[in-house]
Amino acid sequence: MSTADRLLAGPRGRRLLLEFALEAEEARGVEQGSDSLHYAVVQAAHHLTSGRDDGRVAYAAFGDGADDVWRTVVTPDEVAHRLSGMQLPDVTPDGLRVALAQAVDTAMYWQEPDGVGVLTATEPVRRELRRVGEHIARSLHSQWWTTPPALTDQWSVWTWGDDRPDLPVPTAADRLHLWGERTLVNEERAARDPSTSFSGWWSTPPTRSSTRRLADGTPAGLWFVEDSMGWERAVTRCLTISAGAEVYEIDGRKAWAELCRRFPLEVTAQIGEDWRRTTGRSGRWVVPDWTLVASEYEGVHLTVAGYLAAAGTAIDVDADTASVIAGWGPDETYWLTDALVGGDFQTWRCDTAGRHPRWAEEPR
Fold first, then answer.
1. In terms of pTM, does the model score above 0.85?
2. What is the pLDDT of residue 197?
3. Strand partners, 235
4. pLDDT per residue over 146-164, tens digit each?
5. 140 CB neighbour count, 10 Å cutoff
6. In the structure, what pLDDT confidence band is assigned to residue 334 with cuts at 50, 70 and 90?
7. Nearest to 10 by CA among 252, 261, 248
8. Which of 117, 116, 130, 127 is nearest to 88 (CA)?
9. Residue 266 backbone phi and psi in degrees, to 5
10. Whole-number Å distance between alpha carbons of 28 and 48
């Protein structure tokens, strides 16, 4: 499967391609009027979110006492037409970071796909997004998306907001033990009484995670957070990974399915309803039993390409069981044993005054 195919395969990948195009339009200073791609996306997504299929008109009213206004509905074909006429800019690290951050932040795995997600899955829009995907795939700046973790350059977001770094931290073994007990208790309780089923929609380990630094020197974990809380301060810590650490590589659906097949832990009662809504699939659900995975691997890494192709989709594990990659960030490695040593802390501030947020190191 080509890189462009992988980007088109998942909802996060398709969202990244659309965000790249929207950012290109905005960077050129195109006004967001009725002739813009931005306008077409907003209108088409609204129509698809509302579920109306009457085809041609939508109701709107403007201001107090304004007359009713009827306007033509923008269809996926019109969005595709505007995409086809766009001149794509050179791919830059900043441009990819902005598009990827937006694609990650808009992930919501506890509800049905939003209108933009539905829009990017339509055949006309997918067809034109392929051109964007092939454009990005040719760039050297996207090549690291398929690489293993940079073990000599790992940074963990230790705290968000104004919280102080908490030292010492529980061991990975303690975190995994507590997680395993709670997951079993939650599943048994939810199976008896579905009203108690909430325990979170994510499928991440309960342990520390880290990412590499980007081209601008900022840790990727500062930017790529699903359903972020808009933090404007963070503390990161440099990690030293033990030599020879065994890291399981998740580069797509197949690798995740294999991990779940080898170390299955059922979570149907506690997570199943959320994942049914977001994927449309009903049935049994599992996640990797991280307490067992830790017996063979020190860490588990999700590549950027694997995230974009597979996150948020129903991944078949066997004939009647599936799983979802949810709550992860691209290039994130979760450490299942204490195979790492914490180094220096860095404090970061996010400047939100510009067109896009920017993280910068806080002077010491």
1. yes
2. 66
3. 159, 347
4. 999 999 999 999 999 876 6
5. 8
6. very high
7. 252
8. 130
9. -75, 135
10. 28
